[in-house]
Amino acid sequence: MNNTSTTTLTMKREFNVKPEKVFDAWLNPVMMKKWFFTLEGTNKVAQNDPKVGGSWEIVDHRQGVDYRAIGEYVEINSPEKIVFTFKMPQFSELEDTITVELKELGQGSEMTFTQLIHVENEEQWTDADIVKALDEMRDGTEHGWNLMFMGLKELVETGKVSYQG
Predict the structure, then answer these.
(1) What is the pLDDT of residue 87?
(2) Listed residue (75, 80, 142, 77) closest to 105, CA to CA
(3) pLDDT category, 162, cuts 50, 70, 90?
């Protein structure tokens, strides 16, 4: 039996630009390849079909390895909301669901990011093992998004990304 557990990661970020600009950075391949699971210098593929049922794909090349992230758009409501699936097939067949909600905040915008993270349970795991695995996955995922969101903020506010970690 394929047994999985789920945890939710929620993050909020503020930007000094209107929601439309942040929304665009999530869907425009020219912008995506500068921050979304990749950086311009390591990006090999950044493509998408931003409509419900349309798919997206990012391929990032690091230390001699290609990392591929793919998904499908579930909901697109400009400039307030994007819901899409996310999967890295080389690591897992499990698909996460990501929701990005944007609202205007004075001169800028606030983004609420929610990722439903699925973790495959090993057969011999105890409840404590499952909690530990979910916590580690959530913490690692949050760390990755923290770095990406620094790039996203810089991109929408200045037009470029200097972070190349």
Answers:
(1) 97
(2) 80
(3) confident
Distance, in Å, from the CA atom of 9 to the CA atom of 109, rounded to the nearest integer, reads: 20
Report residue 32: phi and psi, to 5°.
-55, -40
How many whole angstroms separate alpha carbon 135 and alpha carbon 141? 10
In the predicted structure, residue 154 carries a pLDDT above the cut 70: yes
What average pLDDT does the structure give for the chain? 94
DSSP category for residue 132: H
CA-CA distance, 154 to 157, in Å (whole number)? 5
Residue labelled with tokens 């591929």? 68
How far is residue 35's CA from residue 41's CA, in Å, rounded to a whole number? 10
Nearest-5° angle of CA 82, CA 137, CA 49?
A: 25
What is the token pair recorded at 62? 């690091």
pLDDT for residue 1 is more than 70: no
CB–CB of 78/89 below 8 Å?
no
Distance CA 122, CA 42 (A): 33
